[in-house]
């Protein structure tokens, strides 16, 4: 064999993996770590280097805690706030508190993603900090191409590229044709009054937001608003002062807090439309498969659980000759729907109620007299602990 042909053969083998994961958020990182720990060759393509901040509520339900610990994440050593109570208020400040059935913990994406990234490195995951621009499937094999003009092949591809991406347009996903009027804003603050065990959700005209403590006593403030409502004020500072602060809880928080970020983070065109968990033979995970409304407080746990479901099906496909690609895709889609479709539906109904201020205020009076009803609503948007 000539040196040239040897080099070509070598490069082809170097760029060949069992699994390629596009996107390095919670779903992508978790799936990569799980698969690598089970001996699979994994390449994760993520354009941003770690650590970095992301717009997120940063509350994690305990339903995924046993699974994360099984993957090697030492949560018990991180001194994270343990959250067991939900506070809910109307735009005028009428509020109730209820115990969370499972509870959870607060952690920033800056820390969380980086911890998973380091575990991935230690377990053999290969990371490439480039932008994936196309995923092609032909002859029972995938080819993933990056903006930097690199190309990689694999038997399986997981899509974990977030809420909305240019890659979704390339893949011609249906939801990209529908308008998305939502804007999300996030900032970390120093505030000594936010109880460590409390996650609070407060309504204001045109949107709602949440407060919860994360590591080192910092408080995450993240809210979702319709862009039409936001643009009437023109900038975040004015909107916070004139609209968000109409809720007494937010007014008190913002008046007694110091922002840590130089400027808040934002993300626009957030889509809550239905997506398909499998498209173009790609198993979609996390927000790429479906985004639950933030008021349900369960998006991070759902992303992690979807990664586990995907990893289980991929391992079965790679190791079991009798488990075909069709079996893998069908099983993943079925399990994804079984675990998440009802939660997403309920999230849409709850957000519809939250955005109609008059009806929400009336409903709150009913909920205030029935904590059992509130707990029931929470259970419909959460799962049970993942034990294996």
The termini sit apart by: 48 Å
Q: Give the biggest beta sheet.
A: 9 strands, mixed
| SSE order, one letter for each helix or strand | HEHEEHEEHEEEEHEEEEHHHEEEEHHHH
The CATH architecture classification is 3-Layer(bba) Sandwich
Helix percentage range: 25-40%
CATH class placement: Alpha Beta
CATH superfamily: FAD/NAD(P)-binding domain
User: Domains counted in the coordinates: how many?
Assistant: 1
Q: In what range is the share of β-strand residues? A: 25-35%
- Structural class, from secondary structure content? alpha/beta
Gyration radius, rounded: 22 Å
Number of strands: 17
Number of helices: 12
Mean pLDDT: 88
| Overall geometry | globular
Contiguous low-pLDDT stretches (5 residues minimum) are 5-11
Word description of this protein:
By secondary structure, this protein is α/β, with parallel strands linked by helices. The protein has a single domain (6-380), classed as 3-Layer(bba) Sandwich (FAD/NAD(P)-binding domain), CATH 3.50.50. 36% of the residues lie in helices and 27% in strands. The chain is built from twelve helices and 17 strands. It has helices at residues 3-14, 26-37, 65-70, 109-122, 166-170, 227-230, 236-242, 248-255, 299-319, 325-355, 357-367, 371-380, and strands at residues 16-22, 42-45, 59-61, 82-89, 95-106, 126-128, 132-138, 141-146, 151-159, 182-190, 198-204, 207-213, 218-226, 258-259, 265-270, 278-279, 282-284. The strands form two sheets. Strands 3, 4, 5, 10, 11, 12, 13, 14 and 15 form a nine-stranded mixed beta sheet that branches. Strands 1, 2, 6, 7, 8, 9, 16 and 17 form an eight-stranded mixed beta sheet that branches. A hairpin with a 2-residue loop joins strand 16 (278-279) and strand 17 (282-284). Helix 2 (26-37) packs parallel to helix 4 (109-122) and helix 2 (26-37) runs parallel beside helix 9. The longest helix is centred in the C-terminal third of the chain and has 31 residues, at 325-355. The protein is globular and about 60 Å long. It starts with a helix and ends in an 8-residue tail after the last helix. Mean pLDDT is 88; it is low at 5-11.
